[in-house]
Amino acid sequence: MARLPRLTLANQAHHVIQRGNNGAEIFVDVQDRQTMLDLLREMARRFDVDVHAYVLMPDHFHLLLTPRTAEALPQLMQAVGRSYVRYFNNRHGRSGTLWEGRYRCTVLQAEEWLIPTMVSMDLNPVRAGLVQKAADWPWSSHGANAGLRNDALVSPHRMFWTLGNTPFARDAAYAQVVEAGLASSDQERISHAAMRGWALGDEAFIEKLQQQTERRVKRQRAGRPPKSVQTSEE
Q1: Does residue 175 sit within a domain?
Q2: Domain that holds residue 183
Q3: Contact present, 50 and 5 (Cβ < 8 Å)
Q4: Could you identify which of 16, 91, 131, 143 might form a hypothetical disulfide with 136, taking C-beta atoms 3.0 to 4.6 angstroms apart as the criterion?
Q5: Cβ neighbours of residue 196 under 8 Å, at least 6 residues apart?
Q6: Angle formed at CA 185 by CA 180 and CA 189, multiple of 5 degrees
Q7: How far is CA 229 from CA 144, 222, 223, 224, in A?
Q8: Region Disordered: start and end of each range (predicted)?
Q9: Is position 134 within any domain?
C-alpha cells in the first residue's frame, strides 16, 4: 500500500518528529545541538514558521510549530535537514544519510492538544532517564516557556497566552502543568498521531480539516465501506 503524503496545512499547529537512521546519534555534543538550533531559527524566519516548542534528544528531535503557508513546513524541514547533514558529515568524517526516512508529522487541534504536546516534549528527556526534571535538560524549549531563560527560536502560540494574564503568570502556570505530568493515555495518543500521521483532535476538528484537503486525516475503520442503497428517487 502506498504511504499517504504528509498532512501540512497553513496556520495549523503541527507536531514533527525526525529520527536518526537506525537509532544512531544525530547530536554528539554541544556544538551539534547549537548548530541545529541556529539552523531552525534561520529557516523558521526564512519560511515564515512559528516554532512554539522543541526538544533535541540524542537520536531524534521534536518540533511543535505553525507554518503560515502549506509549503512552509516541508521547505523548512528540507532546508534544515540538508544543511545539518552536510555539516554533521563534514565535522564527524562520515557520509551517507543521517535520517531514518522522512520526518513524521501530524496536525493537531491547538485548543485541546497544544499544551499537552508541549508537556510531552518537555518530559521526553525525563522519560528517557537523561534527567530527573524537565528544567534540567538544556536542549528544549522548556526553559523559555517556563520563564527560566530567553530563547529567540520560540514564538508562543495563542493557546499559551490563555494560561495567564501576565508573562509571570503564564510561565508559572506552564511550569506547574509540566510538573503535574501527562496521563499515559494522552501520551499514547500524541505519540500515535505523530508517528501515523493522523490528525489529533475532536470529531468537529477532524471534519473541518477533511474539508480542506483530499488527503485522509484520520484512519478509516476496518472492513469494506458500506454499499450505497438505491431508492426510488434516484
Answers
A1: yes
A2: 13-210
A3: no
A4: 131
A5: 106, 219
A6: 110
A7: 57, 20, 18, 15
A8: 212-234
A9: yes
Contact yes or no for 194/17 (Cβ under 8 A): yes
Q: Which of 77, 169, 187 is nearest to 121 (CA)?
A: 187
Tens-digit pLDDT profile for residues 24-75: 999 999 999 999 999 999 999 999 999 999 999 999 999 999 999 999 999 9
Domain count of the fold of the chain: 1
DSSP at 71: T
Q: What is the CATH number of the domain that holds 63?
A: 3.30.70.1290
* Residue closest to 73 by CA, chosen among 101, 97, 107, 118: 107
| Amino acid, res. 222 | A
- DSSP state string for 84-146: HHHHHHHHHT--S--BSSSPEEEEE-HHHHHHHHHHHHHTHHHHTTS-SSGGG-SSBSHHHHT
Report d(CA 145, CA 155) in Å as an integer: 9
231 with 138: CB under 8 angstroms? no
Digit-coded pLDDT (tens) for 114-123: 999 999 999 9
**Structural domain includes residue 162:** yes
Q: C-alpha grid cell for residue 26?
A: 544525530
Q: Which residue has the cell 476538528?
A: 205
Classify the C-alpha dihedral 198-200-202-205 as positive or negative. Answer: negative
pTM summary value = 0.89
